[in-house]
Write the structure tokens for this entry.
Amino acid sequence: MKLRRIDNPPNPYLSEHREWLEPPPEAKIEVYEETSGTILSKNDSPDLPFTWSVNPYRGCQHACSYCYARPYHEYLGLGAGTDFDTKLIVKLNAPQLLRVAFRRRGWKRESVNFSGITDCYQPLEAGYRITRQCLEVCVECNNPAVVVTRGFLVVRDADVLGELNRRADARVLVSIPFADAATCRLLEPQALVPARRFEAIRQLHEAGVPVGVLISPVIAGLNDHDIPRILEQAAAAGARSASYTALRLPGSVEQVFLSRLREAMPLRAERIINRLRDVRGGQLSDSRFCERMRGHGPYWESIRSLFAISKRRYGLKGAYDAEPAPIEAYSAQRPQHGQLAFDFTDRAERDNSEATDASLGLS
């Protein structure tokens, strides 16, 4: 494994930032164990299809350059760059905390999402088994759960997920944003290549665990053309549903992503950046609710149509019937129980889809 040198953007929550006068040392993995006070995080965003999330870890070994969760490391006095990839925190008492939360009188057995700001099946899980223990608590308490991961290690827990699905509800979304292994290695350097993730879908399906594919993020100008290939292979492996989200670059994530994109793809980077601005009204990101996970303009409309056509062609379902309402129509209503993924396909798109299918010979 090639180690990246220490490189973090300035932390906005610290009063100073130190620059290296010489080439910085290599960033090596450091693991910290903590006893947490809580384990359930409540989400109030109308963009996300879940209310409660469980994060057994902080930071993520997959080192995806675009990960929106990077700024959470800054709250700890760490960096959003290599610190997020290598300074990892394990919540040792997560299963015990989850059991206490589920047994509270006011708990309504709402579905919990694994995870919001980490990958619960990153390599660290192989030894600590915190995620598995948390899922066993879900089985014990008959509490539904959804797992979103890039990790093949989820296959290890197919027995627990299958039992949970029989008792309550359990679903897995395998995140596969790239069809090409070479591109994957450039921007997700420590994550599994796509072939292994499709194999995870196949094994989960054969074990009786409902599984879908999540194309997240869609990076306009880079991986949108991969959508049909990803959905075709996912459906062949046994995926039942497909969803997607647009790239978003909150806070320091923008600096990390642009730096690594230019390093990995020097000849294509500016063209991709221009396309990202094109679907964001001239900006690279929009932090407003109901806008941050979608794009606009003709190019984005072509991406939406491509996804909708491909999803229908390969017999995949989606969780949402419409995109989030635009910001001017914002309301604080929560998504309905059972909406477990992101699917930003609007009614106008579906109304026109048959004509589009016919023109492309897909009907």
Remarks:
- The longest strand covers residues 211-218.
- The longest helix spans residues 298-313.
